[in-house]
Amino acid sequence: MPGIQLRMGQPVPGAVPNMSQGAYSGYSAYSGTYSAAADPMWTFFAAIAGQDGEVDAEELQRCLTQSGISGNYSPFSLETCRIMISMMDRDYTGKMGFNEFKELWAALNAWKQNFMMIDQDRSGTVDLHELSQVITAMGYRLSPQTLTAIVKRYSKNGRIFFDDYVACCVKLRALTDFFRRRDNMQQGYVNFVYDDFLQCAMAI
């Protein structure tokens, strides 16, 4: 079967997220070894993880709702929880371990801070212009056409709610990571086979 070529604009530094900025601070902050039991988040994690020591989508949804991380915004839907797990699920178990949970927690807090900064009227939504500000702050360089496509996918009557905003951030991050792993020469375009493309697209 013929391969597929995808192009990611010009090979400029801003084409991929700056991991030191905004929503991406903290993604790799917990890669070292440590005693989990000594971590203040361990008790919280262990209470929701159950006997298997991992968190699935339903458990994550309950955890995030009880934690109040959404604040005055609507709780996360089960679908958003599924794609959050898919972003962090490096061993393809459909669940998250403690390290993955901590990385996600750090990302969610940063995403929320960005959202609240733009949502100054506390309406719980952002529009196209406000979303483009957030995405730019995260280090992405997207065309107006791509931004419009994102708004069409995630908005309700032209407004994007917090839950959908998080789902959008997750997919942007996951698809960009997928692209970067294959763009070894940092050229802004890659070649891969159809099956590889489907595995990425269907997993998120």
Automatic annotation (TrEMBL):
The lineage of its organism: Eukaryota, Metazoa, Chordata, Craniata, Vertebrata. Keywords: Calcium, Cytoplasm, Membrane, Metal-binding, Repeat. GO terms for molecular function: calcium ion binding; protein heterodimerization activity; protein homodimerization activity. This is Grancalcin. It comes from the Eukaryota. Residues 106-141 form the EF-hand domain. It is a peripheral membrane protein. PROSITE patterns: EF_HAND_1 (PS00018), EF_HAND_2 (PS50222). The keyword Isomerase does not apply. Signal peptide: none annotated. GO terms for cellular component: cytosol; endomembrane system; plasma membrane. It comes from Pelodiscus sinensis.
